[in-house]
Amino acid sequence: MSTVYPYSIGSPFTCFGFFEIMNSDRLIVQKYFQRGLTGGQIFRHVKQLGITRNGVYRTISRLRDTGSIQDRPRTGRPRTCRTKERIKRIREKIRRNPERSARKLAMEEDIDNRSMRRILQIDLGLIPYKKRNLHGLSAKQTVARLKRCKALLVRHGSDDIRKIVFSDEKLFVVEQKYNRQNNRIYALSIEDIPENIRTVQRFQHSGSTMVWGAVSYNGKIPLKFIEQGVKINAKHYQNEILRSTLMPNISTLYSDNQWIFQQDSAPAHKAKSTQQWLVDNCPDFISS
In the record, what terms sit under GO molecular function (predicted)? Predict the structure, then answer.
């Protein structure tokens, strides 16, 4: 697989971490140039490697002017902050502990916070990711899930995947989306922002709606919107969802009546009356 590099040849990003990569691109262009190929011909050979047309012609120009692919001597003040030694030192710190704070690293190195972020993001090519919440499982739950998964694999082969109808309910809260950390409004003063823009209303009992849906390899069942205030117990689940929504529409997906119904372990789903209803009316189902 070819490697695509984020910077073109001859760009100013020749500090530690990118210099070797860019030199390898120049060596490729140099070999083609020494064989007598033109700039256009060279570009057609190397564009799949992520080398730009501008990079090819700049390398050829450097070869003609200096006879070398090395950078020309630069004028101006030499770098004192983002030096090769510091970049290498920071890279080792991140390798040992990737959870380091950019602000604390800047304090340790006695440099500006912005310079540290340039080192991390530009010189080292690192991207800061946030940790994600993950539902925890106890040892007992892990064993139970593993046992159930193995049983499902034995009972339902790969051919049965296309027959499974997956169903679930979802409660949607009807209120404005708001991220306290990332949502910002730019203005000269807070008074310049209209009240309806700089505020977000939150209610103790916000509006919401419950929706039931089911999908399978062959298609989907029409959504069922539950009236607000209605509690989904076993009776309501059997009459309004299974009998009135699922059964009238399932034949459009499986005319041969060969399908497997799947649901989660909500109280209305695992009730004994619901389990019996599924035994009497479904060709097969995955028990809660």
Answer: nucleic acid binding
Listed in sequence order, the DSSP H helices in 156-286 are 195-198, 234-236, 247-250, 267-270, 272-281
Helix locations, 35-112, DSSP H: 39-46, 53-66, 84-96, 102-109
Tokens of 61: 């120009």
- Beta-carbon contacts of residue 53 (< 8 Å; ≥ 6 apart): 39, 43, 47
Which residues lie closer than 8 Å to 60 by C-beta, 6 or more apart?
29, 33, 39, 42
Phi, psi angles (nearest 5°) of residue 84: -60, -40
Structure tokens at 199: 């505020």
Specify the pTM: 0.53
Measured CA to CA in angstroms, residue 97 lies from 100, 102, 116, 132 at distances of 6, 12, 16, 18
**Domain parsing of the chain, residue ranges:** 84-123, 139-198+206-286
Q: Output the tens digit of pLDDT for each of the chain's 288 residues.
A: 444 444 333 444 444 433 334 678 888 999 999 999 999 999 999 888 888 888 899 889 888 888 888 877 777 787 888 999 999 999 999 999 999 899 999 999 999 999 999 999 999 999 988 888 888 989 999 999 899 888 888 888 777 889 999 999 998 888 777 787 778 888 888 888 888 888 888 887 778 889 999 999 999 999 999 988 888 899 999 999 999 999 999 999 999 999 999 999 899 999 999 999 999 999 999 876
* CATH number of the structural domain 139-198+206-286: 3.30.420.10
Beta-sheet strands, E only, within 94-183: 164-174
| Contact of 163 with 283, CB cutoff 8 Å | no
What are the distances in angstroms from CA 11 to CA 4, 8, 118, 272? 15, 6, 16, 70
